[in-house]
Amino acid sequence: MNKPNRKQEALNYHSKGRPGKIQVVPTKPTNSQRDLTLAYSPGVAEPCLRIADNVEDVYKYTAKGNLVAVISNGTAVLGLGNIGPEASKPVMEGKGLLFKIYADIDVFDLEINAKTVDEFVNIVKALEPTFGGVNLEDISAPTCFEIERRLKAEMKIPVMHDDQHGTAIISGAALMNACEIQGKKLDKIKMVVNGAGAAAVSCTKMYLSLGVKKENLVMFDINGVLNNDRTDLDDMRMQFATDRKDVTTLADAMKNADVFVGLSAGNVVTPAMLVSMAKNPIVFAMANPEPEISYDLAIAARKDIIMATGRSDFPNQVNNVLGFPYIFRGALDVRATAINEEMKIAAVKAIAEMAKKPVPEAVNLAYGITNLKFGRDYIIPKPMDQRLITEVSSAVARAAIESGVARKAITDWNAYNEELLSRLGNKNKILRDVTNKAKQNPKRVVFAEADTYKILRAAQIVKDEGIAIPILLGNAERIKEIIKENELDLDDIQIIDPKIRTERSLEFAQFLFNKRQRKGVTLFEAKKMMVDRNYYGACMVHFGEADALISGLTKDYATTIKPALQIIGTEAGVNRVAGMYLMITEKGPVFFGDTTVNINPTAQELVDITVLMERSVAQFNVKPRIAILSYSNFGSNEGDIPEKTRETVRILHEKYPDMVVDGEMQANFALNPALLADNFPFSTLNGTPANTLIFPGLASGNIAYKLLQEIGGAEAVGPILLGMKKPVHVLQLGSSVREIVNMVTIAVIDAQVKCAEAKPSKNRKAK
User: Fold this and answer.
1) Where does NADP(+) bind (predicted)?
2) Are 131 and 175 in a shared domain?
3) Shortest CA distance to 193 belongs to which of 182, 185, 201, 184?
């Protein structure tokens, strides 16, 4: 993406709608006057008096125990430097967002106009009654060291400067595992550290605490090697000075070194330096956005290397998000008075051990990897691994208790782990997982309506994010004009105009004529039809020139789907297509069908729809739990709908005994396990809510998803077309760019699955 467009996209993201990225949301009812009198005056006096009597009750009656302050003075923001507190606010909001989505920790971001240590410390200390913990962020060295030291000594809540300790903890875990894989001992390795800022100093101290020997360490800053002859070093850096006289340059230090750790600047390490390192070298090139040496160059230089970077597009990403949310989660849950060395070491070991355990299939699927396992390309867990919240938070909480800084004990660790998992929720996880899976094997997606800004904007996003390879259909001049007007970066994307007669379009027309000649289509008409981009795009998919087709932004559903049905057709054994919506709710994903195609399906047609739905839901790495919906519960009413839905369930139970499905039932019973168990304990759905809802007709399904979308605040992804031989997905009229991107992502997953099934098919067979 060109820089002006990337800049504008970032500005739009932060400014559109409600400015910023976070908001305060009430956690108690506020709908009645009674609610308000309890929330504020006069009811609020009661918890105030309780806290006045016992200050520890502040954790019982307020949000303090789950509230962290992310605090910065803006003196060392990312790679931007000293840009001031106001300019640092978007970063602090982003940090708050990560705390919330990964560990359910609420955050107030505080950007303070305080340059000196005393000013900063005094402000933060005064805020101690408000917060359960303090995350210091983007404060320049060397003041950050003194600020953290004093706050830890003078406050009784956990304080951590993540720029220092986050990278240290994650890279410490990576170092332990890399040494194990490479057959090296921590106390024997020769290490080079390039960089001497806050992160580098903290990382090096962590490595020493893990067993690395100081005499085996050489550190560099911007002025060269830290040695005893330097007169410009402060006490913090002087402790890492070497007395070696044979090292004056980075190239000197790299000779026969076992480990290189980079927290400096991009492209300062050469392949020749890596070649000079010892056997089985370990290289952590963690400068962002460009590492000290690129992953590809490093791997090409040494086949025996273990390479890690700060980037997500290569193996072994050293990402602070593996640590800080869960470290604070564990500290808050035991009301720790500090985050001490024991807790940080516990986090290191927990992260390291996690990488050695079998990887959940959900993680494999999220990253599109068949069998992710401990080894050179997997030395630390992936950020999407939900086990992090239980493994790391529990380890930190235990260490806090054992080291004496916890004010609250945990006795039932199984219950604590369940509580941690319940905090995650599922609203956004499924889209993150699907997007990651799509990125592992992007497919060619042809856009039939490429002469619209929304389609082109979405095409650029999926191209830039590595989700799909766009192909644009339409008038080339008009498309290029829109690209230029909006400063889009799509110059290298293939554009095809079906209105221009080519040998290929004539071949497509001949194919259509051969297929439809006994259904009233002449060759002349077939040639005219091929000018239609939906017909042309469907032919591209059919003949393997594209992997999926996206259309429908400007045309109604029936007009869009007809060409695909005539040219591509349905899967073998599939009698009809169906439409499904993925509804992303606060309680997790729920799949609705049929919502767009079959108006009044028969019992057998509902069976066909259910089978399609079950297979499609499983592609999202969700175990389908299916409810056949009606206005009746298990025979409580008569009528056409209860009768056909009962018959649907009977056929499904008979022909697909391993399918988790039941009905007929009302929607509230399907979604409320307690209600279902109390009234119908025999139901096969008892235990957890249904996540796949089969509606008795299109009207009820369509109405339900639109109501949930508008009133319930759910995000609707769809309609997802089921049953086609090859992927074709139809947009809603007027879809937003986000909705188009979501549908393209679904289309890529669909194409991945259909390509795999084509090898041989392993579809479910009826008895």
Assistant:
1) 77-84, 288
2) no
3) 201
